[in-house]
Amino acid sequence: MDMAKVNLRRQSLFRRVFPLSLILWLVLSACWFSAPQTPTPEQPATASLSATPLPPSATPSATLGILPVWGAYPPPSLPPARPIPTPYSPLPLPQGTKVYVLLGVDRDYPHVGRTDAILILLFNSQNRRASLLSVPPNLFVYLPGFTMQRLNIAYAQGGFEMLSLALAYNFGLRPEKYLLAHKDDFAQFIDDLGGLTITLEQDEPDLCEGLKAGRQHLDGEMALCYVRSRTLTDEHSRSLRHLQVARLIFERMAQGGNLVRLPDLFDIYRKRVETNLSLAELLDLVPLALELAAPGRVGLFTFDAQDVEPWDLSEAGGLPVLLPRPERLPQVLEAAVTFLNTPAPPSVLVTTYVVQATTSPTPSRTPTATLTQTRTATRVRTSTPTRPTRTPTRTRTPTRTRTPTRTLTPSVTQTPTVTLTPTETETPTETLTPTESPTPTETETPTVTETP
């Protein structure tokens, strides 16, 4: 009887305690599963440039809501030799500002090489100003979708798309148009312009087999040598020469009405120069080019030695490169953008350049100064009636006639002798010759001979 009561008490207690225990376990389980997990620190990247792709785990899961350091840009496909920096914020540009990039490769057409000349062009048509920024080609930066590498291989690795993303990621400027020229095309273009004249402040014995101070005229090959020569530690001087030659080419095209040659030059080089600019877009920029040709309207900018630091890449199987200093980079970029904000003052030279372009022998399209060549051929047929004229011509012509004569002479012997004696007679002859134009001339020549 006592055991039965004990069992009943145990069953009653279990019915009371079990639901409470089950509820408590569910609550604790929910709290444990929903607690945030401590992320595992990433292992530092090794200084290797091997072609081993990154494992899938390197890309953070979207379900966690955590963006990687490269943000919305394409992730790297190779392990980086250095930690990937964060992307540069887009620069605030004045309204109507366009961003182009001008490239020069170290190979002849049609080979794809490294872009050893990288010039970012910013221009604003409202303020009539432009900024030209020369970027060191061996800057070691992140190439979206690839890895940390030199900027000059971006075009060869992924075309204009990778290059434009690299400029946007590292400098906050994404160009919409580009133009790329090979070595031989650059030299030929300089020759087509008649060469360039530069001014050197001092002798350059190590530059292109020696250049003297003062004014020097460069043909295509010499100009190519001038912009390409450099030492491993003197990238800044080469960037300055890039800006100098680019400015001279622009001035040569804008002055003297040379912009009217733009359609012909485009037709010559369009199959060799790589660009996404059309001839119509270039012609639309002619009025702005004439405005920018005035002094002080194009600002030239580059990276000084204080803006970059060398980094030895030999441990990773490469040559020394340059790293942009994060604390100095905003000063360089903001200086180029600030130059566009101030409207340019009027210039009398602009009127001169416009007159030179509009008075060129080649016809021009006005008032937009878009110049086109027009040739018209006109054929005129003229018929002049001619009335034939009959003109008689009287000619007096002497005629000599030889006529044999028979003479009968009686002799004493009664023998007749016949002697033939030639006789010459001069007889005047009159000839009536009618002349008719434009028909052939008819001539009637009657001859009358009297012989006694």
Task: Kindly list the characteristics that best describe this protein.
452 residues, alpha+beta, six-stranded mixed beta sheet, two-stranded antiparallel ribbon, 30% helix, globular, disordered C terminus
Question: What this model shows, in words?
Answer:
The chain has 452 residues and is of the alpha+beta class. The protein is 30% helix and 23% strand. It has 10 helices and 14 strands. A 6-stranded mixed beta sheet has the order 9-6-1-2-3-10, sandwiched between helices. Strand 4 and strand 5 (148-150) form a beta hairpin. Helix 3 (183-192) packs across helix 4 and helix 4 runs antiparallel to helix 5. The longest helix has 33 residues, at 2-34. The termini are far apart.
Instruction: Give the end-to-end Cα distance, rounded to a whole number of Å.
Output: 204 Å
Strand arrangement, major sheet = 9-6-1-2-3-10
Number of helical elements: 10
Detail the poorly predicted runs: 22-64, 361-389, 403-427, 429-452
Biggest sheet, open or closed, and with what strands and sense? Answer: 6 strands, mixed
Total beta-strand segments: 14
- State Rg: 48 Å
Order of helices and strands: HEEEEEHEHEEHHHEHHEEEHHEE
Mean pLDDT, to the nearest integer, reads 76
Level of helix content?
A: 25-40%
* Helix and strand composition category: alpha+beta
Overall body shape:
globular
Give the assembly state of these chains. Answer: single chain
